[in-house]
Amino acid sequence: MTEVSEILMSVLSTIRVPRPGDRVHKDECAFSFASPESEGGLYVCMNSFLGFGSKYVERHHAKTGQRAYLHITRTRKTQKEDDNNSGSGDPPKKKPTRLAIGIEGGFDVEQEQYEEEVKVVLFPDRQDVTSDDLASMPDVVRERVSLSMTGLQAADSVSHTLQVQQWDGEVRQESKHAAELKQLDNGLKIPPSGWRCEVCDLQENLWMNLTDGKVLCGRRYFDGSGGNNHALLHFQQTGYPLAVKLGTITPDGADVYSYDEDDMVLDSKLPEHLSHFGIDMMTMEKTERTMTELEIAVNQRVGEWEVIQESGTTLRPLWGPGLTGMKNLGNSCYLNSVMQVLFTIPDFQTKYVSNIDKIFNEAPSDPTQDFKTQVAKLGYGLLSGEYSKPAPDPGDDPNASSETRGDQVGIAPRMFKALVGRGHPEFSTNRQQDAQEFLLHFINMVERNCRSGMNPSEAFRFLVEEKIVCQQSQKAKYTQRVDYIVQLPVPMDQATNMEELQEAEHRREEAESSGAPPPAAPRAQIPFAACLAALCEPETLTDFWSSAVQAKTTATKTTRFASFPDHLVIQIKKFTFGLDWVPKKLDVSIDVPDTLDLSALRAMGQQPGEELLPEVAPPPLMTPDVEVKGILGSHGNEEDDSLYSPLLSPVLDDSTVSQLCEMGFPLEACRKAVYYTGNTGIDAAMNWVMGHMEDPDFSAPLVLPGSSSAPGTTPTESVPEEHLATIVSMGFSRDQATRALRATSNVLERAVDWIFSHLDDLESMDVSEGGRSEGGSEASREPPPGPRVRDGPGKYELFAFISHMGTSTMCGHYVCHIKKDQQWVIFNDQKVCASEKPPKDLGYLYFYRRVVE
């Protein structure tokens, strides 16, 4: 022990006590999904507070020389079926009574299910030091090591901070209608039990309107459960805003809903309002679950196989490499589904999994914040099979077998989700998201992190050719843009069962007018060919500014493939807006084919004898109070036939500029669009934007003809070397830093803001030596000019699709089906099973791969 004491003394300076704000990774390895519950436990560096599984701790020791690690192991507590017995002598574990996390009565945190053991381990000899061992060591050693151990145990882990934030979904506000609620003197008295819906005789999920005492059923949910919407229809007919859920009334309160405020609310006068209809709140007992209890039950069942099982079939669980489930971190099924599909694509496997040793060896000092490291970690976790094994017995039901239910140990992508969502207003939250938007977000991150070398997102990248024909001159204009996803419209008017749909709508209207429950609506059957035809049909452009006739006219626009990608992603545009601008999902079945031939949609380019629209910008408008000749006399020369000067500022239509900015385009690009289309309207400006989005200077400041650089700079103006060095040190190239400084008159603070707001523009610059391009380079070659796309035959076969359940992309549940070795496999978060009847007609995102003949 003397030897151990001496070692601790020698490394005492490397043992830190966590301070507020320190990131402590004590739940997950930086390079794998090892945790304290895994075999071998987790080793937490007592200097950097990074966590490492037993497979990677030696690597960290060899690379950094760090010797002291806190070793944490957790063992699952045995749980008894009896709720009143914790099985370990501890107080019984309470069931959640509040829809909240980290709040009294809310969901318990996961750590409460485990017994934890900690000790210090010294490398390279793996010498153990327990708290008891410290008692016999010198005071300075005992005090520092004990404080560090205690601090690490008490500190919130990063994953806990991100995923189990204190959240309360039950906070309710006083209704604005409660104080002055109008109640009708209709003599109605409501009995204490035996209620039925006055319209459909339903005996559960009943609500009493607090204005007229009508007892009616609640809303129907997307899965067909719940009521028949009669309480809601009553509000729509009468405007009476408040209703109380019968069966939830107790002396402590009840569920009150405000249809006008569209939320659960508080009613401080509830006893008085109930008494009006003969209900004594003090004598009532609860006979139905409250809305909070119903929501808690749903949250405790997140990911249950029964929610989305295929036609009630008992599905066979699968295990092994490439068959690893992913834990739902709370509405993270959109991420799980997308990443499962991406790592079946060879480009992503080669980039991140085949090169995993190289990526890990080159990882920065904090690998938890490195994109390549975390993507490689996720890919290896999904493909290796190490985590594709039956989960331990859940404890709540000792008779349940995890193997028959399909539960896996799986992986929990907490570190990955935190990294890819960082700074994003949506993906950084725990709310449900659109899988298509996340796919594009992730592709964008891949693009930014693959400045040179192999870029797996090229598998999806293709060129779209847009041909615009001026109907007055019959001259054409061709533009190309890069895209990653084909968005397929759903022409509802092409449904093959239109008569059935019209009859169902007629029956629904009759039921609504009579107050009867609406009949089940049939699903629209849309031919895939009709969707494809809708994608390709010409679009009419009104108010198109034609350079041939120098005026606004009508034009037609057709869209075709200028290249076909190796892997084609098709999004079915199921989500739309109703007449009231409320988002809704189209309930459609589309006969999506297993094989697809898009060869007929290849762009043909300019045709023989076809004339092109001249590349002439409309005349820009000048400020009316400027004397052009006077300015030329001061800053130009009389021989110059240009009427432009750097001091002339065009008059731009602010409303058009604002409309474009609201669509998400950079301000300078919007100004140029309005300038070069001569203030001829939003349509012309939008056409210019779509045709110039790939220009290297798309987001650069507007430079008027006759001037050679951005305002405030000249091509030969020197750039302060110290400012260059500051920006280069942030990871950007010298050329990018120079461009940012010249665009902002060499003001460092403005240049930094400019460079981060023009990242997409900078991606198109040639990568030069130095800065991020040098440090992140994976090959010595420079990328070719323009977007790099692969091309080949337009014949494809379906290999995966992502399905969505729910009324909107912001709620519901995602699963994916992937074809592996000619067998369809369903991935439903942690459950991976052989699919018996893959619902290919109900998908949201479809993934095809090229068929090479």
Structure notes:
This protein has 853 residues and is α+β, with helices and mostly antiparallel strands. The chain contains 26 helices and 29 strands. Strands 16, 20, 24, 25, 26, 27, 28 and 29 form an 8-stranded mixed beta sheet that branches. Strands 8-13-12-11-9-10 form a 6-stranded mixed beta sheet, covered by helices on one side. The longest helix has 17 residues, at 498-514. The radius of gyration is 32 Å and the shape is globular. It starts with a helix and ends with a strand. Residues 173-281 form the UBP-type domain. Its EC number is 3.4.19.12. Residues 651-692, 718-758 form the UBA domain. Residues 324-851 form the USP domain. Belongs to the peptidase C19 family.
In total, the number of strands is: 29
Which percent bin holds the helix content? 25-40%
Model regions low in confidence, pLDDT < 50 over at least 5 residues: 80-95, 97-112, 163-170, 296-309, 396-403, 619-649, 705-716, 764-785
Round the mean pLDDT to the nearest integer and report it: 78
Query: What is the makeup of the main sheet?
Result: 8 strands, mixed
Alpha plus pi helix count? 26
